[in-house]
Amino acid sequence: MMLNKTIAAANRGPLDATYAADRGKGAATPEEARKLTANVKERFQEIGIQWLELGGMVRACLDRRVPEVLGITTLDWMKLCFDKSVPKIYRSLRIVSALDGVPLETLKEISEGNAYELSRLPAEKRKSGTWLGLAENTPNEAFKAMVDEALGQKSSLTKPEGWTEFRLRGPDSMIQSMQRAEQKVCAMLHIDDDARWKAWEAIAALIETTPEEHLVVEMEGEDSGGQA
Predict the structure, then answer these.
(1) Angle, to 10 degrees, between the axis of helix 74-82 and the axis of helix 212-222?
(2) From CA 203, how far away is CA 198, in angstroms rounded?
(3) Neighbour count for residue 195 (Cβ, 10 Å)
(4) How many Å from the N-terminal Cα to the C-terminal Cα in the chain?
(5) pLDDT tens-digit series, residues 185-225
(6) Are 36 and 27 in contact (CB under 8 A)?
(7) Closest C-alpha among 77, 52, 49 to residue 62
(8) Do the Cβ atoms of 34 and 80 come closer than 8 Å?
(9) Residue 79 burial class via C-beta count within 10 angstroms: exposed 0-12, middle 13-18, buried 19 and up
């Protein structure tokens, strides 16, 4: 069955050839969407499920437009499947999206922490043999320091060359919403007050690595009341 092949591809991992071929099948039927959702919820409850499998399963469902078929937003679908663990799922999804094209066998040798740090690098670096090798063999704290240095982030108090000051004016409601978003991301990623810019780096990276069609669904859902 097509459904079984989709689930099997997601379970094998997001970046192998079978999964890549499966991604072009289009939207799931309502019945497939319900079964895929149930499968994701069941697998999430299993002990030991890894970030790579988890991110792959979620991405497979988003590629099949499961939330849209069920008539809900991506965020609501994630809450349905993962409850309070949604931030962890977004993190896994971001990593999987950023490292698309990297051999599955390589990714299995990289810890989640180092995979996340890899996702912060530009595409040409994070998928290079040099950086993938470092990610496989370097402890997380040391690898994070390497990534920070590569990005020119020597410390949260030092502004290296290449930094630009960014200012934005807007309605109070918008600024307050941005402040709440910043606080939420800082708490989720354990970002210190003197390095709050890292929250916006994470937000920007999430948007850049999220497929445009998924963003459109989310934004239309949030703004659906604004159209005449």
Answers:
(1) 90
(2) 9
(3) 15
(4) 43
(5) 887 777 776 677 888 888 888 787 777 777 776 776 644 44
(6) no
(7) 77
(8) no
(9) middle
